[in-house]
C-alpha cells in the first residue's frame, strides 16, 4: 500500500475502510524494501508499533475520533521515544535509550498516533546535507547520488519515500525546510515556543524548534493541532493562537493577500531554474488576487555570520554534557580529565568538533564582546527588519535554497560552502518567526521549494496560505521514482 496524504488516510480510518494495523504493517514492508538504499531509519520497535496500532483500531471501532488516531509517524532521533535509542546520529550516545517521551511525542501517542521508527540525522543536528550522521548518510529518494538535505534527513526522506504520511524533525537554521525543499515535501518551522522542546536534545536552545513534516499543509495541521500548546516542562512554550482552526484546515482566500519579496533573497546566487519555478509559483498567488510587493530586509547580509556565531556558541555550552560520565560512550583512561577528553574525541564527529571549537572561541575571554555580543546585536537588527516588513505585507515568499539538491561530497571539504546552503533559511529563526517550505515544482527532474515566512504566531495563517496554494497546484503530489 503506497502512502497517501494523512488527510486521506484519516478519512479512510474514520470510515472503517482502512485499519491502523494494516497501514503499519505496510509501512514496515516498505521500510524493509527501500531503506537499504535510502538509509533513513536508525531504530524500530515493530512489536510496540503494532501493539499501538491495534489499540488505535480498538479506539476507532469504539467510535473515538482524533486528528491523528491510527496514523503512522516517524520521529527524528534527537526526540525521546521511551525505550528506544536516542543517538542524535552520534557514537557518543552509544547504548543510551530514552527514559521518557518528549512532550510532542507523548501528545501524539496519547491521541492515537503510531510511531514506527527513529529517523537518521546529521550528528546532533549539525549539517545541511544529511552526510554527517555517524552511522550512514541518508540518500535522496529522487536520486540516490544526491544529498537529501539536513539535518532532518531521515525524517524528510521517510515522508518523501512513503514510509509514513507524517514525521517529526527539528529545525534550528533550516533543518526541516531545506531537506523538504530537496525532497519535495512540506515542512513547518513553528513560531519559537509554539511546540514544546521537552525531550528534544538541545543543540542551540534559543533557535531549536520541533518541526512537523508531511506531504501537505493540511496533513501538518492534523498533527500540529494535537502537539501545540503550553507545556509546564518547557518554560519557553506558549499557546498557539487559532489552534482550533487547524482541523479541518481551510484554504485562505488569497484575494488581497500582500506577499513581500525580500530583494536580498533574489540576488545573485539563486539558480535560474529555481528562480523560474518561484516566479511561476508567485504567479499562482497573483492570479488569485494576491498583491506581490518588493520589500527589503537590509541586515540579511549579516544573517549567516550571526547565525553561526550564536549557534556554535550555544553548541559549545549544550554539548558539554556529553562527557562519558553519566551515560553513553565512555573511553578507558587513567584519569577523569583524560577520560572526558578521550570520550569526546572518540565519540564526536569532525563537524560537531568544529562547531564546538568555534563556539568555545566565540565565548572565550577577550573575544566574547567582539563576536557573541556583536552577533546578539545583529540578531536584534534582523528581527527589526522583519517587524518593519510586516507593517506593509502579510507574508514573505522566498527561495528555500539556491538550487536543487547537490551531489554527495560536493561541499564536505568546504565548510563555508556547506554553511551557505542555509543562506535563505537561517534568518527567520533568528527572529523566532514561523516559516514553511513547500514544493514549487521540478527543475531538471528534481524538487525545488518555496518558503513562506509569517509574523510571530501566524502559524495557522501560514498553513492556510500553503493549503490554498496546494489546492490550486499538484507539485506536492509528485513522487520520487523509489516511491512509485
UniProtKB/TrEMBL annotation:
Could you say which EC number(s) this protein's record lists? Answer: 6.3.5.7
Stored InterPro entries: Amidase (IPR000120), Amidase_dom (IPR023631), AS_sf (IPR036928), GatA (IPR004412)
Catalytic residues (UniProt): 76 (charge relay system), 151 (charge relay system), 175 (acyl-ester intermediate)
Highest taxon above the source species: Bacteria
Gene3D superfamilies, per database record: Amidase signature (AS) domain
Keywords, in A-Z order: ATP-binding, Ligase, Nucleotide-binding, Protein biosynthesis
Sequence ranges assigned to domain Amidase in this UniProt record: 23-463
Work out whether the entry's keyword set contains ATP-binding: yes
Family annotation (Pfam families): Amidase (PF01425)
Q: Which reaction does it catalyse?
A: L-glutamyl-tRNA(Gln) + L-glutamine + ATP + H2O = L-glutaminyl-tRNA(Gln) + L-glutamate + ADP + phosphate + H(+)
Subunit annotation = Heterotrimer of A, B and C subunits.
Concerning NCBIfam families, the annotation shows: gatA
Question: Which family does the similarity line name?
Answer: Belongs to the amidase family. GatA subfamily.
Q: What does this protein do?
A: Allows the formation of correctly charged Gln-tRNA(Gln) through the transamidation of misacylated Glu-tRNA(Gln) in organisms which lack glutaminyl-tRNA synthetase. The reaction takes place in the presence of glutamine and ATP through an activated gamma-phospho-Glu-tRNA(Gln).
**Identification of the protein by name:** Glutamyl-tRNA(Gln) amidotransferase subunit A
Q: Which organism is it from?
A: Geothrix limicola
Amino acid at each position: 500500500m503506497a502512502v497517501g496524504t494523512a488527510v486521506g488516510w484519516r478519512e479512510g480510518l474514520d470510515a472503517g475502510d482502512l485499519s491502523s494495523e494494516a497501514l503499519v504493517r505496510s509501512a514496515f514492508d516498505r521500510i524493509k524494501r527501500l531503506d537499504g538504499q535510502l538509509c533513513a531509519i536508525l531504530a524500530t520497535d515493530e512489536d510496540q508499533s503494532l501493539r499501538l496500532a491495534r489499540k488505535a483500531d480498538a479506539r476507532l471501532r469504539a467510535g473515538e475520533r482524533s486528528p491523528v488516531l491510527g496514523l503512522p509517524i516517524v520521529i527524528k532521533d534527537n526526540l525521546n521515544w521511551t525505550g528506544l535509542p536516542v543517538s542524535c546520529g552520534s557514537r557518543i550516545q552509544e547504548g543510551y535509550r530514552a527514559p521518557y517521551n518528549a512532550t510532542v511525542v507523548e501528545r501524539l501517542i496519547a491521541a492515537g498516533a503510531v510511531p514506527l521508527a527513529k529517523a537518521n540525522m546529521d550528528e546532533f543536528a549539525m549539517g545541511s546535507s544529511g552526510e554527517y550522521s555517524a552511522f550512514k548518510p541518508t540518500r535522496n529518494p529522487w536520486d540516490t547520488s544526491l544529498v537529501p538535505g539536513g539535518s532532518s534527513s531521515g525524517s524528510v526522506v521517510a515522508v518523501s519515500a512513503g514510509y509514513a504520511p507524517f514525521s517529526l524533525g527539528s529545525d534550528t537554521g533550516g533543518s526541516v525546510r531545506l531537506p523538504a525543499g530537496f525532497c519535495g515535501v512540506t515542512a513547518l518551522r513553528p513560531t519559537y515556543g509554539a511546540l514544546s522542546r521537552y525531550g528534544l536534545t538541545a543543540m542551540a536552545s534559543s533557535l531549536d524548534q520541533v518541526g512537523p513534516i508531511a506531504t501537505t499543509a493540511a496533513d501538518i495541521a492534523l498533527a500540529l493541532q494535537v502537539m501545540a500548546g503550553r507545556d509546564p516542562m518547557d518554560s519557553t512554550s506558549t499557546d498557539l493562537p487559532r489552534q482550533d482552526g487547524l482541523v479541518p484546515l481551510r484554504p485562505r482566500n488569497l484575494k488581497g493577500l500582500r506577499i513581500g519579496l525580500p530583494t536580498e533573497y533574489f540576488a545573485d546566487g539563486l539558480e535560474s531554474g529555481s528562480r523560474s519555478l518561484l516566479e511561476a509559483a508567485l504567479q499562482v498567488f497573483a492570479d488569485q488576487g494576491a498583491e506581490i510587493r518588493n520589500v527589503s530586509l537590509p541586515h540579511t547580509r549579516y544573517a549567516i555570520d550571526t547565525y553561526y556565531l550564536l549557534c556554535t556558541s550555544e553548541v559549545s555550552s549544550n554539548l558539554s554534557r556529553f562527557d562519558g560520565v553519566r551515560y553513553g560512550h565512555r573511553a578507558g583512561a587513567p584519569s577523569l580529565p583524560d577520560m572526558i577528553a578521550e570520550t569526546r574525541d572518540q565519540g564526536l564527529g569532525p563537524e560537531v568538533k568544529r562547531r564546538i571549537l568555534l563556539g568555545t572561541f566565540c565565548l572565550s575571554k577577550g573575544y566574547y564582546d567582539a563576536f557573541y555580543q556583536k552577533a546578539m546585536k545583529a540578531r536584534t537588527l534582523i528581527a527589526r527588519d522583519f517587524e518593519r516588513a510586516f507593517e506593509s505585507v502579510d507574508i514573505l515568499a522566498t527561495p528555500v535554497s539556491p538550487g536543487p539538491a547537490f551531489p554527495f561530497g560536493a561541499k564536505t571539504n568546504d565548510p563555508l560552502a556547506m554553511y551557505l546552503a542555509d543562506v535563505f533559511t537561517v534568518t527567520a529563526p533568528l527572529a523566532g518567526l514561523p516559516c514553511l517550505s513547500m514544493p514549487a515544482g521540478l527543475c531538471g527532474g528534481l524538487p525545488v521549494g518555496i518558503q513562506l515566512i509569517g509574523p510571530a504566531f501566524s502559524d495557522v495563517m501560514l498553513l492556510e496560505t500553503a493549503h490554498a496554494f496546494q489546492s490550486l497546484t499538484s507539485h506536492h503530489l509528485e513522487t520520487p521514482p523509489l516511491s512509485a
